[in-house]
Amino acid sequence: MIPEIGHFALILALLVALILGSFPIIGAARGNAVWMGLARPAARVQFFLIAIAFLCLAYAFASKDYSVSYVAANSNSQLPLRFRIAAVWGGHEGSLLLWAMILSIWTVAVSIFSKHLPDDMRARILGVMGLVSVGFLLFMLMVSNPFDRLIPAAMDGRDLNPLLQDPGMIFHPPMLYMGYVGFSVAFSFAIAALLGGQLDSAWARWSRPWTTMAWVFLTLGIMGGSNWAYYELGWGGWWFWDAVENASFMPWLVGTALIHSLAVTEKRGSFKAWTVLLAIGAFSLSLLGTFLVRSGVLTSVHAFATDPRRGLFILVFLVIVIGGSLALFAWRAPTVGRGGKFGVVSRESFLLANNVLLAVASMSVLLGTLYPLFLDALGLGKISVGPPYFDTVFVPLMTPALFLMGVGPIARWKNATVPELALRLRWAFAVSVATALILPLLLGHWTPMIGLGLFLAFWIFAASAHLVRQRLSGDVATLLSRAKAVPFAWWGMVIAHIGIAVFTLGVTVVKGFESEIAVRMLPGDVAHLAGYEFKFEGVKDSVGPNYTASRGQFRVSKNGEERTMLFPEKRLYTVQNMPMTEAGISPALINDLYTSLGEPLDGGAWSVHIYHKPMVEWIWAGAALMALGGLMALSDRRYRLRRKKLTDQKILKATR
Amino acid sequence: MKRFLLPLVIFLIMVGFLAVGLHLDPREVPSPLVGKPAPSFSLPILDDPKKTFSPQQMLGQVWLFNVWASWCAACRDEHPLLVALSKANIVPIYGMDYKDTNADAQQWLLQGGNPYLANATDIDGRVGINYGVYGVPETYVIDKNGVIVYKQIGPITLEVLTNKILPLVKRLQAQ
Fold this sequence. Notes:
The structure holds 2 protein chains of 2 kinds. Chain A is an alpha+beta fold. Helix content of chain A is 65%, strand content 11%. Chain A has helices at residues 2-30, 33-37, 39-62, 69-74, 81-86, 92-112, 119-143, 167-196, 201-232, 243-268, 272-295, 308-332, 347-377, 387-407, 418-443, 448-472, 479-485, 488-513, 617-634, 637-655; strands spanning 515-521, 526-529, 532-543, 547-558, 561-566, 569-573, 578-582, 584-586, 591-600, 606-614. In chain A, strands 2, 3, 4, 5, 6 and 7 form a 6-stranded antiparallel beta sheet that branches. In chain A, strands 1-10-9-8 form a 4-stranded antiparallel beta sheet. The longest helix of chain A is centred in the N-terminal third of the chain and has 32 residues, at 201-232. The radius of gyration of chain A is 27 Å and the shape is globular. The termini of chain A are far apart. Helices cover 40% and strands 18% of the residues of chain B. Chain B contains 5 helices and 7 strands, in the order H-E-E-E-H-E-H-E-H-E-E-H. Chain B has helices at 2-22, 73-88, 102-112, 126-130, 158-174, and strands spanning 43-44, 52-53, 63-68, 93-98, 118-122, 138-142, 148-153. In chain B, the strands form 2 sheets. Chain B has a 5-stranded mixed beta sheet. A two-stranded antiparallel sheet of chain B has the order 1-2. Classes of the chains: A alpha+beta, B alpha/beta.
């Protein structure tokens, strides 16, 4: 009964989405206020209905209802409750429902926080979001219904994929989807602006906080996924250039470009057409990612089961949404106008250069991801594109981008000069070059890549320090009040840029100085790596709720002094008979120690992998700082002030 | 106007490739074993472990070699097709029970029907390694000279059976 309620709620939600996607947009074109007025209630009803469907599916999982085919395929009676709930998005159908759910959350959020928008703009934005929702709900109801019954019911479920039975599963997909789907807001603002012909700085101001919010979620989502891969897969890696990782990284790159170009459009009125294209691009790449994961055109550790009908549906949907918006762009963008003029050396041109680099980087990731498919389609054979391609393409693109990051915030708008910039950044340059040359030698060895990475990281640190000093320079007595007067958004930018530097530093050091050994160890054996001694103290059997495990114990010491204990596990998930590795990690600011158990060998010995990963945690710390910077930008006074002004206006109106 | 059309054009080209890609299977990896003699082995037979099965016994016949296991969910999907095929008496089907226990395997054949003339039991999966088994079920078409002519990774579907395997078997049998 409960699953049928969920199914019915989805059908009703589709009808409401159809209303949301049609009447308000037509109303905005005809100036019909009643039709436009339908947008807000429809957005709320849609959210309510999809939430009911979502809760029904969660209930089916929690109550172990194996007469629902999706539940039977992705859950098991032995599975702990928190993973049974997370299993709602553990497969294809449920993760689509999560998509639709999050889209409806964003839609409701826009309907609540859009009181200051003109009626027709708001109606168009919500309408476009409604149309996207129609696509996803139709997709679910036609070829991927999570509420399909399994008659007769299964005795027990086939269990959630053991890889997904991890706390990461509870947070990573919702965060990532909040980011992916969040770009639908910026997309809808852009389409609404194209439809209404109102591409002005007001439009940029309105869509900025939404874009930043989505970007923050996407940053955290990718960070969480990368961290999860590090401790779950047992290879000690943190990024694999897997097709699906790329699918989340491409919108991030374009989204980053979008945030910056929105800033220029708001402040200087330039780059309008380019900004619109980026807004369309960020969301299109999110949709494309969905297609790549679900259609089975690419192999990936993340890919869901293949069904050609599903692939075809999403492809048609992509053509309508992306093709339609790019056609609209081609039609309306020429009328936009070019905005303010700026010199070759100016903050605008630095931002534009960075924008182009980010977009090109994103396109090169797309090319690498789809290249095997292109070759296969042309009958030129099967190949796979891996880290060597991405590393060679990425370094030359990111090097100038990171360098410009140091210069951009210091350059003046409209017109700056090279000698002036050189003069102001000479110390930052000297410090970073010196660090790049000397620091690696102190750490052990110097290679061009280590030197380059350290130079870029310290260049951003030093340039940011210069930027802060310049902003706060002056009388010491008034320092505090001047610091307070600096807008929060500016601090957000500085923190996010420092986050990039921290990230770069982490990547450089871990790539340059990591070490690993694979050894055969008997209980009592000691392995040496990076100055640490790892004493293997044997393996004990243990039993989890739905798995049995061999739990190894390692005593780690340095120069005879005990440092930590590590407990890597080798688990066997009984339902799917699938072995899993749980790495034993001691995370630390400087030295991450990482062990994983391989196969048991003869005579009680085990094959053991030990890794030393210096500063690997800085990679995620950097991403967290970027997200923090985004949040600071969001909490800027400007946004709060505007809301306060609005309430003031309302009070004024009420008292009149 | 023209430069604003560029993104659309690039996108449409990509869609063309994606549409073609939908009909291709990225998992269809050309097996290095195709065109080579089937690796030899001698393994106990499931129903009578005292006897052994080895591919050499099949020289002179075209036959299907199906790797399966009772723990394999996808094997369940293709099983009815195999049973139907065995009843049609077109081609002999031999199986290899992969990383399984004999009791589970026999139970499974009792429930789902037994399409196999005999099953080799590869308990520790060593023979599976020689055959490059990486996803059960896998099916090999082996010709009269003991050479592997075709390898199907994953379950056999009706489409694969009628369009690929059966025409191939007919052609090989006529040789």
